[in-house]
Amino acid sequence: MQVKILVLGPFSAGKTQFIKTLTDCPVSTEVGLTASEEKKKKSHTTVAMDYGKIAVGNKKVHLLGTPGQERFSFMLEVLGREYDGAVLLIDSTDRENIEQTARFIDFLIKKNRPFVVGCNKQDLDGRLSPEEVAELIGIPQDRVVPLTAKDKDSCNRLINKILDIVCKEEVAA
């Protein structure tokens, strides 16, 4: 069984790291940043996509990571065709990052596909809890999963959560 999971979220939410942590040989289109405001957060950014493939049980899972900046929003439409489920990553230490999820949630709701929210950077000081994040973005708490994108077990829990939801929907259909 092949499953396509879209990995999306605002700039610096941890999408590339999430895919790198889960896969042995990811494909990334990261380039150095030139905008000084963005350079304060990190040195590189994804400009087209990240891609990785993993096996989970009998499923071959294709992970497609989108760029987070508004100027690359067209890639969300390109990569967001015919996906089975989505992981929306957010930086739980950055309230502005959390507030920027509205456009991603609107996209996901419009597509009517299952999604979960990875509440990333839970290992850092100043983080909001998954419950606080769920309230801020207006989604059920059971769809928000605490995450540290550098931790493989944490990433696996998130992937298993979305796969459980996707597979239940397939059985019900």
General description of the model:
The chain is of the alpha/beta class and 173 residues long. The chain contains seven helices and seven strands; from the N terminus they run βαβαββαβααβαβα. The protein has a seven-stranded mixed sheet with strand order 2-3-4-1-5-6-7, with helices on both faces. Strand 3 (44-56) and strand 4 (59-65) form a beta hairpin. The two termini are 16 Å apart. The model has no long low-confidence stretch (mean pLDDT 84).
Fraction in beta strands = 25-35%
What is the helical fraction, as a range of percent?
A: 25-40%
| Low-pLDDT segments | none
Strand element count: 7
SS class? alpha/beta
**Number of helical stretches of at least 4 residues:** 7
**What order do the SSEs take from the amino end to the carboxyl end, as H and E?**
EHEHEEHEHHEHEH
Neighbour order of strands in the largest sheet: 2-3-4-1-5-6-7
Average per-residue pLDDT, rounded, comes to 84
Overall geometric form: globular
Compute the CA-based radius of gyration. 15 Å
Oligomer type: single chain
Biggest sheet, open or closed, and with what strands and sense? 7 strands, mixed
The N- to C-terminal Cα distance equals 16 Å
